[in-house]
Amino acid sequence: MTQAVSTRIDGTVLVVDDDLLLLRSIERVLRQRGLDVVVQHRSFGVLNRLAEVRPDLMLLDVRMPGLDGTTLTSLVRNDPTLSSTRIVLHSAMPERELSDMALLCGADGYFAKSATMDGVAAAVIDWLARWRRPKR
């Protein structure tokens, strides 16, 4: 997790998770911070949704029925029209394992599902702010 640089920021986040309660909690806390949030309750159809929405960031559950988060990340990275999408994985697995998995599959970041909702929002805001800075 990272420390937030601000409490509000503009942007669109696509949240993909098969846990409806967690999905709605993340959606609520991000909307409270001024973000546009699109939710997807299952892995099937994510690539089409991603192409439609073109979010600034996709929060992606690692362990879902059907296509898991690492497979989806690989598919996104191999699609020239989607490959620049910022992807942050989230999971209940141990942080070290999650960190390694994010690195191996090409995700831009990760957070543990044990994080507080305020912590998730702060991290998302920080990632969005950092990734929007001009490259030198």
Low-pLDDT regions: 1-6
Number of helices: 5
Structural category: alpha/beta
Second rung of CATH, namely the architecture? 3-Layer(aba) Sandwich
How many structural domains?
1
Mean pLDDT: 85
CATH superfamily: Response regulator
Share of helix, binned: 40-55%
Largest sheet: 5 strands, parallel
> Which CATH first-tier class would you pick?
Alpha Beta
- Oligomeric composition of the shown chains: single chain
Tertiary shape:
globular
Tell me the distance between the termini: 24 Å
What is the β-strand count? Answer: 5
Radius of gyration: 14 Å
Q: Give the spatial strand order of the biggest sheet.
A: 2-1-3-4-5
Question: What are the defining features of this structure?
Answer:
alpha/beta, Rossmann fold, 5-stranded parallel sheet
